[in-house]
Amino acid sequence: MANEVNTIGVLTSGGDAPGMNAAIRGVVREALANGKKVKGIRRGYQGLLEEDIMELTRESVSEIIDQGGTFLLTARCAEFRTEEGQKKGAEICRKNGIDGLVVIGGDGSFAGAQKLAAQGINTVGVPGTIDLDIACTEYTIGFDTAVNTAMEAIDKVRDTSTSHERVSIIEVMGRDAGYITLWCGIANGAEDILIPETYDYDEQRIINHIVASRKSGKKHHIIINAEGIGHSTSMARRIEAATGVETRATILGYMQRGGSPTCKDRVYATMMGAMAADLLCDGKTNRVVGYQNGKFQDYDINEALGMNKGVSEYMIHVAKNMSV
Ligand code: ADP
Ligand code: F6P
Asked: Which helix (H) or strand (E) holds 154?
């Protein structure tokens, strides 16, 4: 068979996400079931270049499906962005008998997988990021857990915010993506949301909204702000000065990336990891696994990286109307 694979490597790269362990387990056990050997690479491409590689057995991935983070560890690696780094990575794969590699991460990690495929190593990407910002898929590993974590935290902030009749600005993760903000905006009944994709920040409009909702008797005003917009603390100071209503900022930060994965993240991550192993066993390379229209599917990495994803205008419209 062309591209026949005997040993499958797996690594996690970029920001960690709850469910990455379930995906690694999916890769390992599906590959073993297909009679392949499996090797784990620690710390993403950095660990590949440092040859931090270990054999994985079915026991190596016992009791991790419920664990947040990634037991293989993750990293960002500047050297791997260079052609020399990519050549070195491919040579280290060959030296260790790794002829197929599953890369669990975001778009950046997929670009790395694409470069390794060009160097002759069969690669398949699995979308792992809490940001949900990968165009070829409606689902990314970790988003479900992270958005539920953020939602529960915002509920708690809202309790104290209502008791004190304060305005609360709550900053959630998403440097370039507003999905957590938008989903929490709807799930938490936020009065305002600020997302990077539709940057139309108009502080006076928010101030007018707060003043109007106070007049109508509302005791809280929740503003969910994406990390990509940022400046929540200074925004709070200015809004308090303009409205005369006590305003506090809460930055949820990294707690959104941790925690035990939800059922959805465990199941989808397992499916995607297993599918990546199956694709490699079928001799496929330069592919990315995705979930679209109710199905797990795979795409050419070049096509996947060329796709665009926008936030749903209709969800934004509904989020606004729910806060009237
Ligand atoms: P994510 O995978 O979550 O998007 P990054 O963009 O930080 O995270 O990418 C993770 C790693 O993937 C980078 O540190 C780098 O090693 C590798 N990478 C990113 N972009 C490229 C690229 N264009 N070519 C080769 N490797 C890349
Ligand atoms: O995991 C996604 C993400 O949380 C983004 O929202 C954010 O921009 C980035 O990771 C920050 O991660 P780090 O500080 O680890 O680079």
From this structure: helix 143-163
pTM above 0.90, yes or no: yes
Tokens representing residue 288 in the block: 């990315």
| Ligand 2 pocket, mutate which of 131, 184, 195 (most atoms under 8 A from CB) | 131
Check: CB of residue 107 under 8 Å from CB of residue 305: yes
Of the candidates 108, 101, 41, the one whose C-alpha atom is nearest the C-alpha of residue 76 is 108
In whole angstroms, what is the distance from residue 216 CA to residue 108 CA?
Answer: 47
Mean pLDDT by 10 residues, the chain (324 residues): 84 98 98 98 98 97 97 97 98 97 97 97 98 97 98 97 96 96 97 88 91 91 95 96 97 97 98 98 97 97 94 93 86
- 10: Cβ–Cβ under 8 A, 6 or more apart, which residues? 24, 27, 28, 38, 39, 40, 41, 56, 72, 101, 102, 104, 273
* Nearest CA residue ID for atom 4, ligand 2: 173
